[in-house]
Design goal:
The chain is an alpha/beta fold and 325 residues long.
Length: 325
């Protein structure tokens, strides 16, 4: 899908690559719908040294000149073990071929400062796409709380009303730094949440992965990266879904085509008290937001086949582009 330059949305993608981050960045780049002004990295799926290197490798392999900035090395308060069981020790492990090494270096400057500077330079024009813990955005807001009113909107993968994936109640991205998520949502920023309610169903199946594999016979890092994630998926192993849920693609798919998702405005809170609910999101459907909650858009349903087509098409084109590099 290509969009005329006059309608292209300006983005900053804040992420912690991560296999589904890879798919999301590929979707953003290959769609032609966005001007991606920067990619900012945060610790999350792996330590910052890994996630920032992965983000740079992805941006470079896809043939872009998007600057990549490293950000927070740790959550505001929470400390945890990185989820190598799902993403491998590099955060972007593969069953075979890997991305080529980048031909450039990380851009200077901390991610939070970069986010703040770009938003302040273009009030009302920058959409923040947050695909990992919200630490970088919370730091930017701590430096300048007025930034919340200057962001066009924030779309994020995180949370969920149906339960969690890292604890029975909490989803990983918000659990990794719930204090940061609470700061961001309480800031008054216009936000839309893509939680496990929809992202668990944002999977590609075996036929989709076969298309990606067939796009480049021989060494195919895109197919091998997605295959690694597929092999580590507990839902795939249990037979609940026929392929990996590429959670982080959902915010980008919605920006490309809002008709793919059902969104409801709800009052959302993030639990920051220690205990079994730590990092969980709760929503209130009453027509007013109780004290301490933010009224934001929450994705509750999706057109899964259409989302899968968008994502698979992007991965096919990414595989071909990387092969020509």
């Amino acid at each position: 899908m290509n969009t005329s330059p006059t309608t292209r949305r300006r983005l900053i993608i804040d992420c912690d690559p991560g296999h589904d981050d890879f798919a999301a960045i590929a979707l953003a780049v290959m769609s032609g719908a966005f001007d991606i002004e920067a990619i900012t990295a945060v610790c999350g799926n792996a330590p910052l040294a890994r996630t920032s290197a992965n983000a740079l490798a992805i941006a470079d392999a896809l043939g872009t000149a998007i600057p990549v900035h490293a950000g927070a090395v740790a959550p505001l308060i929470h400390r945890y073990e990185f989820p190598a069981a799902f993403h491998g020790v590099t955060g972007l492990d593969s069953t075979g071929a890997t991305l080529p090494p980048p031909r450039r270096a990380l851009a200077p400057g901390h991610a939070a400062l970069e986010i703040l500077a770009r938003v302040n330079a273009a009030p009302g024009e920058i959409t923040l796409v947050v695909l990992g813990p919200m630490t970088n955005v919370a730091l930017a807001l701590a430096l300048d709380p007025e930034m919340a009113g200057k962001v066009k909107e924030l779309v994020f993968m995180g949370g969920g009303l149906i339960g969690g994936n890292v604890t029975p109640r909490a989803e990983f991205n918000l659990w990794a730094d719930p204090e940061a998520a609470a700061i961001v949502l309480r800031s008054g920023i216009k936000a839309t949440m893509f939680g496990l309610d929809v992202t668990n169903r944002a999977f590609i199946d075996g036929d989709d992965l076969a298309r990606v594999r067939a796009a480049v016979p021989g060494a195919n890092p895109v197919a091998d990266i997605i295959q690694f994630y597929t092999d580590r998926s507990g839902d795939v192993a249990a037979g609940r879904v026929p392929g990996p849920a590429l959670h982080d693609t959902c915010p980008l798919a919605w920006l490309i085509d809002p008709a793919l998702f059902t969104i409801e405005s709800l009052g959302v809170t993030v639990a920051t008290q220690p205990g079994p609910h730590y990092g969980a999101t709760d929503a209130d459907r009453r027509p007013w937001a109780p004290e301490g909650s933010a009224r934001i858009g929450v994705a509750l349903d999706l057109d899964r086949p259409a989302v899968a087509r968008h994502v698979t098409d992007a991965l096919v084109e990414a595989a071909r582009r990387i092969a020509r590099r």
